UniProtKB/TrEMBL annotation:
<dbReference type="GO" id="GO:0030170">
    <property type="term" value="F:pyridoxal phosphate binding"/>
</dbReference>
<keyword id="KW-0028">Amino-acid biosynthesis</keyword>
<feature type="domain" description="Orn/DAP/Arg decarboxylase 2 N-terminal">
    <location>
        <begin position="35"/>
        <end position="279"/>
    </location>
</feature>
<comment type="function">
    <text>Specifically catalyzes the decarboxylation of meso-diaminopimelate (meso-DAP) to L-lysine.</text>
</comment>
<keyword id="KW-0210">Decarboxylase</keyword>
<feature type="binding site">
    <location>
        <position position="239"/>
    </location>
    <ligand>
        <name>pyridoxal 5'-phosphate</name>
    </ligand>
</feature>
<feature type="binding site">
    <location>
        <position position="276"/>
    </location>
    <ligand>
        <name>substrate</name>
    </ligand>
</feature>
<comment type="similarity">
    <text>Belongs to the Orn/Lys/Arg decarboxylase class-II family. LysA subfamily.</text>
</comment>
<keyword id="KW-0457">Lysine biosynthesis</keyword>
<dbReference type="InterPro" id="IPR000183">
    <property type="entry name" value="Orn/DAP/Arg_de-COase"/>
</dbReference>
<keyword id="KW-0456">Lyase</keyword>
<feature type="binding site">
    <location>
        <position position="374"/>
    </location>
    <ligand>
        <name>pyridoxal 5'-phosphate</name>
    </ligand>
</feature>
<dbReference type="InterPro" id="IPR022643">
    <property type="entry name" value="De-COase2_C"/>
</dbReference>
<dbReference type="Pfam" id="PF02784">
    <property type="entry name" value="Orn_Arg_deC_N"/>
</dbReference>
<dbReference type="InterPro" id="IPR002986">
    <property type="entry name" value="DAP_deCOOHase_LysA"/>
</dbReference>
<dbReference type="InterPro" id="IPR029066">
    <property type="entry name" value="PLP-binding_barrel"/>
</dbReference>
<dbReference type="GO" id="GO:0009089">
    <property type="term" value="P:lysine biosynthetic process via diaminopimelate"/>
</dbReference>
Length: 420
């Protein structure tokens, strides 16, 4: 359920007409509904009510500090994967004790920054990272709270690029080797073992792989207990899918019920790292049609818009489907196949391929739906296209939460070299 609906033939975000925002902000821009963000967060949370848990929003999905702040005000924490994400989370007012740090390549500097901030827990992904963290914590005369991210070797049945819990993926420590690492960590003066974590992939449309992974985690915790290692936190990662097209992902409430049932009787705080499910359908990308064309010798129709693969990488990168709606509602007119493409000089630059689209004219606005997750946060300035604006709506008001970049932003930090 989201708050992007047609009212009197005009696509609105809550009570604001998208065309009015476009007139003021220009195109393209990302647009988020705060009512949808709040609704998704509270729906997700409600499944875990009464159970010790902490929801840590996966910052990578949508990193704008206004959005992080919105979730922080609702009690959310942050799942971070870089020093930059730590900086954002702190700036947005996320409490350090609600921040967890995942990722296979944490640098010394990043570890030190997170230790100094006093985050809740590091999800350690390799023996070498454990050694480095112990060293850095010693230098800072502190102790690092850790979980190991275990790789449960479960097939999440999702796109290969976003599957992370298979033995062949780079993530985590094989469950077979994890015990010896916990035993090693137990002997380290600057390490405090507090948890076990796992994250098996993204855009999962079934509950079973989560439960299979959780069972492996539970069995592993039993082994740890036998070794006298007590676990306070079980981190289930993120991964619940959303409907982009006709997918039928589990409802967060059903997911929560299955997780609760599995964890019954365990004296642990559950940590969750949802990203997409909170923001995916709370954001859209608004773009303006520039040209329409047909190339001779081909029946192919192209709708050239002002947004491109640098603004929304998912279609080019994963062949991902995003529904595209006209901002001005069209009568149920005849639709024809078209590619919706951007101005970038690559054939891979498309937002939709062979899509049934109504007749559209230059100057019309289109809404690329379900773009709130991994949309702006994966955007780049490829082809020297300044990054677009981000706008947040609340009721009948809207606010620019990130200015459109300008040409000067493109060359910031660059210099004409004196060497040549
Ligand atoms: N926790 C960890 C350790 C993760 O690696 C991820 C996502 C999440 C949580 C959040 O997963 P979510 O709930 O959003 O599925 N760019 C891709 C998705 C990459 C996901 C990376 N990790 C896409 O656009 O589909």
């Amino acid at each position: 359920m989201n708050h992007f609906t047609y009212q009197n033939g005009e696509l609105c975000c809550e009570d604001v007409r998208i065309k009015d925002i476009a007139a003021q902000v220009g195109t393209p821009f990302y647009l988020y509904s705060s009512a949808t963000l709040r609704r998704h967060f509270t729906a997700f949370e409600s499944g875990f009510a009464g159970m010790a848990h902490q929801t840590c929003f996966a910052v990578k999905a949508c990193s704008n500090i206004a959005i992080l702040n919105l979730f922080a005000k609702l009690g959310g924490g942050a799942d971070i994967v870089s020093g930059g994400e730590l900086f954002r989370a702190l700036k947005a007012g996320v409490e350090p004790q609600r921040i967890i740090y995942s990722g296979v390549g944490k640098s010394r500097r990043e570890l030190a920054e997170a230790l100094q901030a006093g985050i809740l827990m590091f999800n350690v992904e390799s023996p070498q990272e454990l050694d480095r963290l112990n060293e850095v914590a010693a230098e800072l005369k502190t102790r690092a709270r850790i979980a190991f991210r275990i790789n449960p070797d479960v097939d999440p049945k999702t796109h290969a690029y976003i599957s992370t819990g298979l033995a062949k993926n780079k993530f985590g420590i094989p469950v077979t080797e994890a015990l010896q690492e916990y035993l090693r960590a137990k002997t380290m003066a600057h390490i405090e073992i507090v948890g076990v974590s796992c994250h098996i992939g993204s855009q999962l449309t079934q509950i079973e792989p989560f439960i299979e992974a959780l069972r492996k985690v539970k069995a592993f915790i039993a082994k740890l207990n036998q070794e006298g290692i007590q676990i306070k936190y079980v981190d289930m990662g993120g991964g619940i899918g959303i409907p982009y097209d006709d997918e039928q992902p589990p409802h967060p409430i059903d997911y929560a019920a299955a997780v609760r049932a599995e964890l019954a009787g365990m004296d642990c705080t559950l940590i969750l790292e949802p990203g997409r499910v909170l923001v995916g359908n709370a954001g859209i990308l608004v773009t303006e049609v520039q040209y329409t064309k047909r190339n001779s010798g081909s029946e192919k129709r192209f709708i050239v818009v002002d947004a491109a693969m640098n603004d929304l990488a998912r279609p080019s990168l994963y062949g991902a489907f995003h529904e595209i709606l006209p901002v001005r509602e069209t009568a149920a007119a005849e639709k024809q196949q078209a590619d919706v493409v951007g101005p970038i000089c690559e054939s891979g630059d498309f937002l939709a391929k062979d899509r049934l689209m109504p007749e559209v004219q230059a100057g019309e606005l289109l809404a690329v739906m379900s773009s709130g997750a991994y949309g702006f946060s994966m955007s780049s300035t490829y082809n020297s296209r300044p990054r677009v604006a981000e706008v947040l709506v609340s009721g009948s008001s809207f606010e620019v939460i990130r200015q459109r970049e300008c040409y000067d932003d493109l060359v910031r930090g660059e210099a004409v070299s004196g060497l040549c």
